[in-house]
Structure formats: C-alpha cells, structure tokens
Amino acid sequence: MHSPMGAQEAQSLLASFANPAKVTWTLSEQIANKIAEDIFRGVYEPGQSLLETNLAESFGVSRGPIRDALHVLQVEGLVVIQPRRGASVAVLTPTNIKEIFSLRAVLYGFAAGEAARERSENVLPLLEEGTTALRFAVETAGADMFLGLLYRLSMELLGASSNHYTRNILAPLARLTLSVTRRVMLEEENRRKWLNNWESVVGAIREGNVVAADEAAKRLVLTVYGSVAKLVGTPSDETTLQEK
Fold it and tell me: CB of 176 within 8 A of CB of 73?
C-alpha cells in the first residue's frame, strides 16, 4: 500500500522530474533535440523531407548548425541523408521495430540486473521518487509528460549499471522507437501497464534480486512492444509506418 500524497506535493514532485537539471548543449545539439522531439510527436512523418533551408529559417540560424544537427540524428538512426536528395525522417518497418524491441529487452534486462546487483545508494532513492511521480502522472499528466518521465527514469536506471556501454547502446535504440511508444502511451491503460511493470523492476532492484530485475525489465519492454505491434503490424505483415 503506497502512502497517500497530496495534490500539491505530487505536482511539485512531478515538476521536478519533468524539469531536470539543465545540461549544456551546443547549438546543433539543441536543434537536433528539438527536431527529434518533433519526430516523436508526429510533427514530421516517416519519410518526410527535412529541408535545410526551411529548418534554418524556422530556427533562425544558418544552414551550418542545421546540417550538423541532421548528421547527429543520422548517427542515431532517426534521419536518413542521401546524396542529392537531402535528409528525410527514417522509415521503420515492422521487422525493424521488432528487432529493436527484442534487443532493447535483452539489454534493458541486463541493465536492471546490474542495478539490482549494485543497489546504488544514489540511484535507488531517485528511482523510488520517480516511481511516485509516475503514479501521479498516469491520471493527471498527458502522455508526453508521462513519456518524458519514464524515459528519464530509464536513463537513470541505465546509469546505475557499472557497464558504461549499456546506456550508449540503449539510449539511441529507445529514441528510435519513441514515436511509436508515444502513440501507445496515449492510452491510459497502456500507461498503467507500464507503471505496473516498472514497479516490479524497481521492487526487484530494491531487494537486490538480479534474476527478478532482469525478467521484470524484459517483460516491461516486451509488453510495450505487444501494444506497438497492434498499431504498426508484425513482420508477417510487412508495411512501413509511412503506409499506415
């Protein structure tokens, strides 16, 4: 049984997680993050062209930072750049999505198991506090804030692992599928499923149960994929998201 929380206290906690400490970004990184956010929110559709001149005018900058930002997103797999055709939003097929989620499940399970093994005194309280914020966000916050919270907490969990390669590999994979994950999280039922699975992950980490943490984290990712597959199809029904 979770102790009750007043609305004002919960709002304050939610705000603290929605607005983490500021990070210093270069101009091109700021632009890349904003374009990525627009891709996640569906402002730019899969396959849509990203014209440097239009983006430069929109951001009020020269084409240099725009070009650098697009190259950052190309490395992450969010953008495709072709000679003489320029940049466009990457198109994922059902096979691509299944492969990404399958790999994420394995790596996320490993990261959760490592976090349970180490039980960091710095990370565990943050995960607990963030979970409280998530409970409040399920009903009172929109899908975008909920998604931002779970993404941040996932990155904190990855940071708890002593294997520094885990976060470097998983973070770009998570960003690749954020747009379809967002569509799933528009449904409160799916947000509740994610929260229940997340609580199992945090509980196993709290207890130092490596196997349970690994299994719960895998289940969390694959449950999300189950909902995503209903939206975009399965590899046996091979169509692109652009055709959906």
Answer: no
**Distance of CA 151 to CAs 44, 114, 155, 175, 204, Å?**
21, 19, 6, 9, 19
CB 179 within 8 A of CB 76: no
193-244 pLDDT per residue, tens: 999 999 999 999 999 999 999 999 999 999 999 999 998 888 875 654 444 4
With contact defined as beta carbons under 8 Å apart, do 91 and 186 qualify?
Answer: no
Separation between Cα atoms, residue 203 and residue 47, nearest integer Å: 41
Average pLDDT over residues 55-71: 93
- The upper half-sphere exposure of residue 101, i.e. CA atoms within 13 Å in the direction of its Cβ, equals 24
Tokens of 177: 């599928």
**Residues 146-166 pLDDT 10s:** 888 888 888 888 877 777 788
**Would you state the structure tokens that stand for residue 77, as one six-digit string?**
């797999």
Instruction: Give dist(CA 224, CA 236) in Å, integer.
Output: 19
Q: Which H/E stretch holds residue 224? A: helix 210-232
SS3 labels along 7-47: HHHHHHHHHHHHCCCCCCCCHHHHHHHHHHHHHHCCCCCCC
Residue by residue, DSSP assigns 119-177 as: --TTHHHHHHHHHHHHHHHHHHS-HHHHHHHHHHHHHHHHHTSS-HHHHHHHHHHHHHT
Cβ neighbours of residue 239 closer than 8 Å, sequence gap 6 or more: 93, 94, 233
